Amino acid sequence: MNDIEAQFEAGQFGAVITLLEGEARTAREHALLGLSLLYTGRLEEAELSLTRASLLGDPEGQVELGNALRLLGRFDEAVTHLQAIAPDLTGELQLRCLRWWGVAEFQAGQTQEGLKRVERAWHGYIALGNEELTGRVTVSLAQMYNMLGDARRAKLLLSEAVRVLPSLPDPAPRLTALKALLELQIAHSEFVKARKTLVDAKQTLTQVDSPRLRMLLMTSEAELLRVSGNYSGYLSLLEDLRLHAEGLQDHNLRVWTISRLAEHQSLIGQHSQALYTLLGFERKPAEWPAELWATSGVLARRRADLLGASVDLRKAAQMFRDAGRIRELVRVQLHLAAAALQLKEEATVATVLKEALTHMLRLRQLNEFRPDLEELNELLHYAVLEPEIAPYMEPLLDNLANLAGAPRLPEDGAIALQVTTLGRAAVQKDGEEVKFTYAGTVPILVYIALKPGRTRAEMQLELFPEKDAKSGAAYMRQCLKELRDKLGPQIVRFEGPHQAPWYALGQDVHVDLDLQHFRDALSGGEVARALALYRGPFLPDLEESEWAQQVRDEALLALTFELRNQMARYEAEGDHQRVVLLANQYLRIDPHEHEVLELRLKAAEAFAPPHELAKYTADLRRMFN
After folding, report:
1. Distance from C-alpha of 271 to C-alpha of 295, rounded to nearest angstrom
2. Measured in Å, how far apart are the chain's first and last C-alpha atoms?
3. Which tens digits make up the pLDDT trace of 530-583?
4. CA 603, 605, 608, 611 torsion: positive or negative?
5. Which residue spans within 222-289 are E strands per DSSP?
6. Is the peptide bond between 211 and the residue preceding it cis, with omega within 30 degrees of 0?
7. Dist CA 101 CA 78 (whole Å)
């Protein structure tokens, strides 16, 4: 027995399992077997061994049974069990019991009670004078503070935990601390530090044989890939995690993987597959955690089930709000506001979005929400034009200036391309930008989408008139070849005479063109959506093309005409605040239009404070100096 204890203390959990599996008889043997199974991620088997150890009276087995129940997602059972055994414990085990009891309460939504209990455990460990044990509970405390939005305190605690926790004999606590620190650095856009922490964590991981810890670190690595825009790497890691998460029986890992994978599948248009992934969670929806209700709502909004999305997102928001999980709440509120906007529930949009923006300004962690803000860009531009919400938007505008317009996704099975033409030329496929060698490749794709049925010579004349017939034909062939090489041979089809075929998109190709959405928005009087999509001139690098210049002029004229119409309407209605907001947007596009500068100043005189009037007056005077 002493040899088994020594192997356990040395972190040789696999060896302990080999010796005791099927052979454990005493309370201590069942406890050692259960703990080793727990640390290697075999949670359901660990529960059985720890239950035997607990019933046979092993105090450590009793405490770690509560931890196992927590890891299996049975938070209420864990709380009840740990509360029952706490009075009979002393010393370090009593403190450990407080730790897992508090963490289980926190995960069950009793955040303040859980936080206070873990703080009590932390103080107790400090009094014991054992730095390593103190470092372990410090990690739990830091994770709680981070989820409650106190990132500064969380980072301070984690840095201390990483300093004191050893890599051997048990590297798991140090790895947990590094993972939590990595997530904080990602949330604050500290990517250089995050990559360094990831390398440190992977080196620590080599010293332990734990599939569960490896998978947990992969979740953080996947998040780093997501927020930095590497969607192919992100999807690859998600699919790898899905293959392993089922076998590990870790509740939190399964929830994270299912919610993230389902959301990404829906983002790239795989709506049926996303639902299949979400409903693969083993519990009925009535027992879902908030994360899955949030995912269900986002999926519903993306497939245009706006009423269903509103119900699910409201439920998730309330659960996150009750639990004090501010970062998750913000993300749900953004999607809830977007659904309400499409339902034309303006009062709901204002209420929900103001709360979300208030939290965002306090957290100062915009990068964490960047993928959502890019997708919901129309919502943000709507907010800029609403007097009730606009003051919350002003501090964020500089950070949001480069966000793209929101894509609209095709039905399942189509080849989806999101093509940006306003402000820059770019093509995204499955959420990731495709890089091209030739500057003319994207303009050719755009031209074919807008004007199908033209020959190669006709396209060259309108797109690249500066090239002679021979060099132009060669360049067209190179660009068309690159389109097929990068996007698939079916991307473009051609028919007609062999010497002069005409070109069109392939039948299964869906091009989501920002210019078309821009035109649709203006035709429907949706100026906020048009502003969200207009990021600059059409195909700005296509300098010699009269066709491109004509499209540019038409787009700019249509936008400024609609802005002028709406300013005139609101001026007639006496809504001076909206006139100023619209004028501000107009002047972002054309800052030298003196008529709009005069109109803005006149409208502002009805309500604006002196410092704002002074600014508008100065802007107008500069036009005449």
Report:
1. 12
2. 92
3. 887 888 999 999 999 999 999 999 999 999 999 999 999 999 999 999 899 999
4. positive
5. none
6. no
7. 7
